UniProtKB/TrEMBL annotation:
Keyword ATP-binding listed: yes
Domain of life: Bacteria
Domain AAA: 19-148
Record protein name field: ATP-binding protein
DUF4143 domain sequence ranges: 214-349
Length: 392
């Protein structure tokens, strides 16, 4: 079945805009499928698709005279007197592609849709040359709502977190789905597979592609064993504050090198760090960022995660689609796990108690946040408690 991602509607609206639609995210998150769906939805007559993983497609754009690209396509029957759609997959594989797209964008009536597996590449190569000519759409592994859609489960999507409420009946219906989501994550191929061994094999294949293509080709990583060790250490520290010096000492690398590797991992959609919430330079606040993986299945390939860590990482992957996340912690220890858009506080507890909500709001009120929820995974029910699977 041809499932639609939540981001599809925004991309479809952008079809009528001259700007280049740039779809970026980790490989195997469904970028190519989205492009094919957008081509089907467009009423432009001439629609072309090129995959830069194919050498012949790469060679077509790897020339100095960009007008020859148009000449060749015209000889193949494309009418450039009318609007044309050109879709290019995996743009990070061709260094000169931003220059090509900029020239053709400026001189011909072309709607470009392009995909890339790395914001690291796009930010560095596209930022200046395509200023004002592009809009970036970031795509991640499926959120839990999309996970349910891919499993043919009909539900009402959560429009905003202010309307979050608990529903024990729905919980009973989709508990197994949520447990699987917390363990195997949201890569579309993984979600569609019904076999556990196959799920794990697909995750290993995704990891291999990420390391051998994205990291080696784009960033020219020389110390791959050390980088893998850093990833293992990060997986074991999900939801914890980053101590760069400690990690550097453990893997025997400089602090700057570890910093650079973490920057790379974050800008290739592998991990995400979130900052501390701050109204001002409050001396009570701990300044380090906390780390999460952008897919639970990937994280579990690197460490034996506790069910609590998997649950907290899953909540992160559900919440970050709704806004900007931060956390808050006093030096004395009390902590708010997540704050979204500086408006709503969340405490994450596998087995929650009413006292958890009281503690949460006592701390939230110190930073002028009036609304909060306790998010749990196990059976319980009290005011302002919400089962984690309701965020979808």
């Amino acid at each position: 079945m041809n499932f639609k991602r939540k981001i599809f509607n925004s991309l479809e609206k952008h079809l009528t805009v001259k700007q280049v639609s740039v779809i970026t995210g980790m490989r195997r998150t469904g970028k190519t499928t989205l492009v094919k769906q957008l081509m089907e939805a467009s009423n432009i007559k001439h629609k072309l698709f090129f995959d830069l993983e194919k050498l012949e497609d790469r060679d077509r754009f790897n020339i100095r005279n960009y007008d020859l690209i148009i000449t060749k396509l015209s000889e193949e029957g494309v009418d450039f007197s009318k609007k044309v759609m050109i879709c290019i997959d995996e743009i990070q594989l061709l260094p000169n592609i931003p220059s090509v797209i900029k020239y053709l964008y400026d001189h011909y009536d072309i709607k470009f849709i392009v995909t890339g597996s790395s914001s690291y590449y796009i930010k560095n190569k596209f930022q200046e040359s395509m200023a004002g000519r592009k809009k970036i759409f970031e795509i991640y592994p499926l959120d839990f709502g999309e996970y349910l859609t891919f499993n043919n489960f009909k539900f009402k999507a959560l429009e905003n977190l202010e309307s979050l409420v608990n529903d024990t009946f729905i919980k009973e219906e989709i508990q197994k789905h949520y447990n699987d989501y917390c363990t195997y994550g949201g890569f579309p191929e993984v979600v569609l597979s019904k076999d556990i061994v196959e799920k794990k094999d697909i995750l290993q294949d995704i990891l291999s592609s990420y390391i051998n293509i994205d990291l080696v080709q784009i960033a020219d990583i020389k110390k791959m064993p050390e980088l893998r060790n850093i990833i293992k250490l990060l997986a074991a520290r999900i939801g914890s504050k980053l101590d760069i010096s400690k990690i550097a000492n453990t893997v025997n690398l400089s602090r700057q090198t570890v910093d650079n590797y973490i920057y790379l991992l974050e800008n290739t959609y592998f991990i995400k760090t979130i900052p501390v919430y701050s109204l001002n330079a409050d001396r009570e606040i701990v300044k380090a960022r906390k780390v999460y993986f952008l897919d639970n299945g990937i994280a579990t390939q690197f460490a034996e995660l506790s069910s609590g860590s998997k649950f907290e990482n899953a909540i992160f992957n559900q919440l970050h689609h709704f806004g900007e996340l931060s956390y808050y912690q006093l030096k004395t220890g009390p902590e708010i796990d997540f704050i979204i858009d500086k408006k709503i506080a969340f405490e994450v507890k596998e087995t929650a108690q009413p006292i958890d909500y009281k503690k949460l709001m006592n701390l939230a009120k110190k930073i002028n946040i009036e609304k909060g929820f306790v998010l749990g995974k196990n059976n319980t029910n009290f005011e302002w408690f919400v089962w984690g699977g309701m965020i979808r």
